[in-house]
Amino acid sequence: MPESSTSPISLDDVLAARERIASFIDPTPLRRYPTLDAAIPGVSLLVKHENLQPTGSFKVRNGLATVTALSSAERARGVVGATTGNHGLGLAFAGRQLGVPVTICVPTGNNPEKNAALRAWGATVIEEGADYDAAVGVAQRLVESEGRTLAHSTNNVNVLAGAGTMTLEIHEQLGDAESLDTLIIAIGGGSQAVGALTVARTLRPDLEVIGVQAAGAPAVHDSWHAREPRTTERASTFSEGVATRSTYPLTFGALLDGLADFVTVTEAEVADAVRTILSTTHHLVEGAGAMGFAAARKLALRLQGKRVGIIFCGANMDTAVLRRILNREL
Amino acid sequence: MPESSTSPISLDDVLAARERIASFIDPTPLRRYPTLDAAIPGVSLLVKHENLQPTGSFKVRNGLATVTALSSAERARGVVGATTGNHGLGLAFAGRQLGVPVTICVPTGNNPEKNAALRAWGATVIEEGADYDAAVGVAQRLVESEGRTLAHSTNNVNVLAGAGTMTLEIHEQLGDAESLDTLIIAIGGGSQAVGALTVARTLRPDLEVIGVQAAGAPAVHDSWHAREPRTTERASTFSEGVATRSTYPLTFGALLDGLADFVTVTEAEVADAVRTILSTTHHLVEGAGAMGFAAARKLALRLQGKRVGIIFCGANMDTAVLRRILNREL
Asked: Residue B56: its chain A contacts at CB < 8 A?
């Protein structure tokens, strides 16, 4: 049962999702890096390593939570998802584990390494439409014509519950003795943030959750500050995991209600964060995976003396983009 | 007790090392990547993710196994190690966990990110000498002048036993049902390979272990084929983790006795392997960490139909080197 009028899921939903997905993926590490801390003096960072999920992003939690919740009739007819990659990889991974056919609709010109990975995990890939929101339309067509179940990347309670298992895991890894003051979450559709808010409300009520979005794709950020949904014409960022152009009905209310703040970071700030994370931790993160660190650096004054959780939420950076980042063309 | 005249350690030594280090590090994943498999048709790869150790390399096993074996008097006097980085990071991590002072001698011009990480983990860093073997001389001086215990990166039974815990972990992760035909190990001093041979001899006697070294630093490879120790004047490779110029007394006999084959890979082959691993798995590996894949690709014909284990043994690639690799300057 929802715990407030704005919460689309409850802690029980998250606990149930964790029960369903636990046999398919191991907990990811929660780590400190003295070398990374040195880059933001006065702030103590805890890194949640979702980049180490088998598909390279936290979205495998969402995909598994979605597919494991389907009836056997639904599983037989298969699943269709629209995605720029990570949501689709999560579905593809889940489909392979559970024997469920998965079709993924991606926008034209999508990250080629993500497309290759989708196919390698056994998904059928349909490349059509100008951006993520257009790919959603293509997926909807398949639902109507082929009877497949749409696995929306955000507007799906099982997705939100799956995403919440990450924060549940952080809570348990910290234990009773360890505190966490702030958790910074990159927001595309908002599944990870709503999952975090749901878990924090009950288990860590003092935890402040801050959202971050790309300055070139600020629809949810702008809406949050305006207190009403806004859309943007374009989503212009190399962080394709958060390149959305609108809010989502299932998450926006909870974000409005629960986030302590919502900031944006520029492409240059994200690129610099990718470089710093690489050179200090030697972990490759994609743009969305670097945004927590970029935001923490931006908010360094306000976060002085605090213990701040950041999420390396994905690793699936295209090599061509990485090359541009290392050459300081981004 | 050694199990043959050429084996410096026994399986019991490995089991004892695992017992000592188990509370400090978690097992690393053993994974398949359909995208990586596609790069070597006909060969099924299993990746052991030592790049995900807290210090970014398998050497944390060796450091922990060494420091936990010291007496309290030795711990109080502190440890000194010579290293191009990863062995030192392992010692520094162990020293921080156990409250033991650690001094690390690195060659002049050593990978700056490894130096920064050594200091961030609390080690004192002394940068002196032209290469790894010269840094060993500097460390020896500190042993004599300050009474510190030398933690040699190879000639130390605790190091070898610690390194062996990796193969023990692979054995257990595979379980009784799963087979592994071949394990490819990058060799600098040979700790990881001798550890693997020790574990395999008892627990997986059919497992073939193949060594790989850089063509520009082939001392152990050349010695293995000559059946007697050879030294080289230089160790010319960007894979500094395996940039040795000689064999080591404690490991050479076991390598001679146990390895099924020993090959070299060129700098270009390693650079290409780093790029392929990045673009298919989105894991950053340093040169030594890419050599298993490079060797598997080189030996593809011979490995057809086989299940081959490769080790992403380290992640600590300097960003400047990575940039050159992505720009195809290496």
From this structure: 281-282
Fold match between domain B11-57+157-326 and domain B59-150:
yes
| Bigger pLDDT: A261 vs A152 | A261
Q: What count of other Cβ atoms lies within 10 Å of the Cβ of residue A175?
A: 7
- Which positions ≥6 away from A115 have C-beta within 8 Å? A85, A106, A125, A127
Burial of A328 (0-12, 13-18, 19+ CB in 10 A): exposed
Å from A290 to nearest chain B CA? 14
Q: Is B284 close to A284, i.e. CB distance below 8 A?
A: yes
Mean pLDDT score across all residues of chain A:
94
Nearest CA in chain B to A323: B326
CA closest to B25 among chain A residues:
A29
Contacts with A240 from chain B: Cβ below 8 Å: none
Chosen from B47, B282, B318, B329 to mutate, greatest number of chain A CBs within 10 A: B282
Q: Which residues of A touch B (CB under 8 A)?
A: 26, 29, 31, 33-35, 37-38, 49, 51-52, 54, 56, 113, 116-117, 120-122, 275, 278-284, 286, 315-319, 322-323, 326-327
* Domain at B59-150, CATH from 3.40.50.1820, 3.30.70.100, 3.40.50.300, 3.40.50.1100: 3.40.50.1100
The CATH code belonging to domain A11-57+157-326 is 3.40.50.1100
pLDDT of residue A5: 52
Q: How far is A33 from chain B (nearest CA, A)?
A: 8
For residue B134, count CB atoms less than 10 angstroms from its CB and return exposed for 0-12, middle for 13-18, buried for 19 or more: middle
H helical segments located in chain A: 11-21, 34-37, 59-67, 72-77, 86-98, 112-120, 132-146, 157-174, 191-203, 219-226, 249-258, 267-281, 287-298, 319-326
Distance from CA of A125 to the nearest CA of B (A): 15
Q: How far apart are CA B236 and CA B130, in angstroms?
A: 12
Return the residue of A nearest to B286 by Cα: A282
pLDDT, one tens digit for every residue, chain B (330 residues): 444 457 899 999 999 999 999 999 999 999 999 999 999 999 999 999 999 999 999 999 999 999 999 999 999 999 999 887 899 999 999 999 999 999 999 999 888 888 989 999 999 999 999 887 788 899 999 999 999 999 988 889 999 999 999 999 999 999 988 999 999 999 999 999 999 999 999 999 999 999 999 999 999 999 999 999 999 998 899 998 898 889 999 999 999 999 999 999 999 999 999 999 999 999 999 999 999 999 999 999 999 999 999 999 999 999 999 999 999 999
The C-alpha of A316 sits at a distance from chain B's nearest C-alpha, in angstroms, of 6
pLDDT of residue A29: 96
What is the C-alpha separation between A171 and A174, in angstroms, rounded?
A: 5
